[in-house]
Amino acid sequence: MTERKTSRSSLSALPLRGRILLLILCICGIAMNRSAATHHAAAPGSGPTQCDSGMSRHSMHAAALPAPTLQAAAMVVTGDPAATARFGSSQGAPPRMVWIPGGRFSMGTDHMEDAQPVHQVEVKGFWIDRTDITNQEFARFVQATGYVTVAERPLDPRQFPDLAPEDLAPGAVVFTPPAGPVSLQNPLAWWRFVRGADWRHPNGPNSDLQGKEKYPVVQIAWPDAVAYATWAGKRLPTEAEWEFAARGGRVRQNYPWGNELNPKGKWMANTFQGHFPDKNTSEDGYAGVAPVASFPPNDFGLYDMSGNVWQWVADWYRPDYYTQLGREEIAINPQGPSDSFDPQEPGVTKRVQKGGSYLCTDQYCERYMPGARGKGDPDTATNHLGFRCVRAQ
């Protein structure tokens, strides 16, 4: 990486896919994580309970529709004989999708500033993919359409006249753990823009997808996810739909499975254990991305709604959007704000990401909670970022 690529003052001259600092903001946000870095340095081994300055917790409020009702209403999980027996026939249901009933819930979390205030939301029923879109599924789309992802496209020299020819080459951002401990104030120590990295080569040109057909596709920019969804007759979920589905009918719980990160010592999602970012002890069984459905599903039968890879949703990102929704008694089927604003990167549009990834840890970022929010430059692809789709009834 050249000095020009690590200089914040030169970001305007960089390819969107090479803006490493934008990637860091997409993961959790530099400013949002300073609290975590400070606490981790002060008390090694006793990381903070959240990754931004929103430290206060408020009393729990019951949702309008209780969890047991919601759980009973998740009627069909196609391709799952046990679920079909429990909820009824899957005839006519979209393949590998789960029906999520409409209902009300408490959206957001007190753990992060941009996910406050917790507010009441009502969504209509919808189908949602049981897992993230896999390499196998995305390959089928590419074979049928000839689609070329954002990370595979060279930059247009007319748009970037100041770039050297080699900087116009296709590529994407890859997590590269340092050899030893580093300051958590310097995320550039563990991220690199790698030429030749794309969905077929998620960690760079020397990597491939052999034996990874059932892994979630990564190195996907937002337009890539939209293109796939359109081809499949689906769309990306709204942020509200995604969170409603992720909670699985549970009321104001920290995680899709409850309030404990590791109930009875069991890891329930693919996250980062050890010393971030240099040593992942892989206590959950995985040092990087895991195959889809490697961990238990939530109460709606959905897999990987926490950890593994971030998931794009449809909404633009604004940190004040929940304040706007909180003014309504009940926000009905919210579609997100009409525009994007991120005070950490004024002038750069962002889309919301949900679910966290295998890099989430209480040492740096706890945004694997359903109510938490990520954000990202729509044209930035990374090796811990994928998606799933929804469709109406």
Characterization of this structure:
- It is a single chain.
- This protein is of the alpha+beta class and 393 residues long.
- The protein has a single domain, classed as paralog of FGE (formylglycine-generating enzyme), CATH 3.90.1580.10.
- 18% of the residues lie in helices and 13% in strands.
- The chain is built from nine helices and 14 strands.
- The strands form five sheets. Strands 12-11-9-13 form a four-stranded mixed sheet. Strands 1-4-14 form a three-stranded antiparallel sheet, with no helix packed on it. Strands 2-3-10 form a three-stranded mixed sheet.
- Strand 7 and strand 8 form a beta hairpin.
- The longest helix has 11 residues.
- The chain is globular and about 55 Å long.
Strand-helix topology:
Elements: H1 3-6, H2 20-27, H3 34-42, H4 67-73, H5 81-87, E1 97-100, E2 103-107, E3 119-123, E4 126-129, H6 135-145, E5 171-175, E6 191-195, H7 222-231, H8 239-247, E7 274-275, E8 279-280, E9 310-316, H9 321-326, E10 331-332, E11 351-354, E12 374-376, E13 385-386, E14 390-391
List keywords for this structure.
about 400 residues; alpha+beta; paralog of FGE (formylglycine-generating enzyme); 3-stranded antiparallel β-sheet; 9 helices; disordered N terminus
Individual helix count: 9
Counted up, domains total: 1
**Residue-averaged pLDDT:** 81
State the name of the first-level CATH class. Answer: Alpha Beta
From the N-terminal CA to the C-terminal CA, the straight-line distance is 48 Å
Structural class: alpha+beta
Any idea what the CATH architecture is? Alpha-Beta Complex
Radius of gyration: 20 Å
Order of helices and strands: HHHHHEEEEHEEHHEEEHEEEEE
Under CATH, the topology can be stated as paralog of FGE (formylglycine-generating enzyme)
